[in-house]
Write a structure and sequence with these properties.
The chain is mostly helical and 171 residues long. Helix content is 75%, strand content 0%. The chain folds into two domains: 73 residues; 53 residues. α2 crosses α4. It comes from Rhodococcus spelaei.
Length: 171
């Protein structure tokens, strides 16, 4: 009898929050594409990227305004606008993909945190019940102070009983 359990990849693909490849002819590693898009999105959000882009734009404008013989994109800078539009067309989906992957990680983390919190609550309730039962059990057990007090009372009673015998009778 063979155990036909789905593999981890099949289980991941069965989940609705895991994107799958729609192109049947190509084998696309969704995780690899996601990792690359996240790294690009992370780079697009850095100060280093903004500085590099600003320098490129300033050089582009300076060469097209000052160098008359090298003007490949004259004043309205249509080619520069086209480059920005293309960059925005690719940057927006990459950023959205990175956000979706982060949302999936957050959802998994939240589910794990919720399960951990439920387990912690159950453990705490169990320990509280155990502590209450121990308190009840200790309440029924003779303590050292209780035994001392009882022995002192017995000692006092014995001393009182023996007192008349030890003193000679006075007549």
């Amino acid at each position: 009898m063979s155990d036909k359990r789905p593999s981890a990849a099949q289980t991941a693909r069965a989940r609705l929050d895991t994107p799958g490849s729609r192109w049947r002819g190509f084998n696309i590693d969704v995780e690899a594409v996601g990792r690359v898009s996240e790294s690009i999105a992370r780079f697009l959000g850095t100060g280093k990227y903004l500085v590099i882009q600003t320098v490129i734009v300033l050089v582009w404008i300076a060469l097209n305004v000052a160098a008359v013989g090298l003007q490949w994109d004259p004043y309205p800078f249509i080619l520069l606008n086209l480059a920005f539009s293309t960059q925005a067309a690719y940057a927006a989906p990459l950023i959205l993909l990175a956000q979706n992957r982060q949302e999936n990680r957050d959802r998994v983390s939240l589910e794990e945190d919720r399960a951990r919190a439920e387990q912690t609550k159950a453990d705490t309730e169990f320990l509280a019940r155990e502590l209450a039962s121990l308190r009840l059990a200790v309440g029924e057990v003779a303590t050292r102070d209780y035994l001392r007090r009882e022995l002192e009372e017995i000692k006092t009673l014995l001393a009182e009983r023996d007192e008349p015998e030890t003193q000679p009778a006075r007549k």
